[in-house]
Write a structure and sequence with these properties.
It is a single chain. Helices cover 30% and strands 32% of the residues. It is built from 5 helices and 8 strands. The chain has helices at 18-25, 28-31, 42-54, 104-120, 134-142; strands at residues 2-4, 9-11, 58-62, 69-79, 86-95, 124-130, 146-152, 161-168. Strands 3-4-5-6-8-7 form a 6-stranded mixed β-sheet, sandwiched between helices. A hairpin with a 4-residue loop joins strand 1 and strand 2 (9-11). Helix 1 (18-25) crosses helix 3.
Amino acid sequence: MIITTNQLLIRAFQSNDTEAVYQIGSNPELTQPLNMTAFQSDAEAQRFLQMLQTDPDAWALPLKTTQEVCGIVMLAPNLAADQVSVAGYELSFALLPAFQKHGLMSTALPAIMQHYQQTQAVTVFNAACFLDNRDSQKLLLKLGFQADYQTQLPAYLGGQTVQYFRYLII
């Protein structure tokens, strides 16, 4: 499955995406907001890529023009009260610094959310941002997310306070 925007071909991860996954995962500026530890080796990036390849809710963001993967979007399902149905998804995303501030994520996230709404009837999307991650907060508000609540992460996740945002498709 490929989701197309003006600039991107949003698709599943492939085995030849190792370099892009390493660039994203080894950059502390990108991994810290995702609450991940930066990769220390190619082997860690390869293991992460293998996990991404088996996750139907992990999306590579290659440019249409060059096929270069410039970012990642991951969705984690939030189960409904029946513990079977998906009530919504939590979004996580990152773009390599050279591709930030070009409107790529502004088009990728709505396209992905529309895909999930059309194929799975999902109407709720959530995203959490550290309080100092102003760029992501600004992006989410621009896309129509509403600030929902703040909470402190557990100690094993760093203990920082995050702002949750919610988007409802009506």
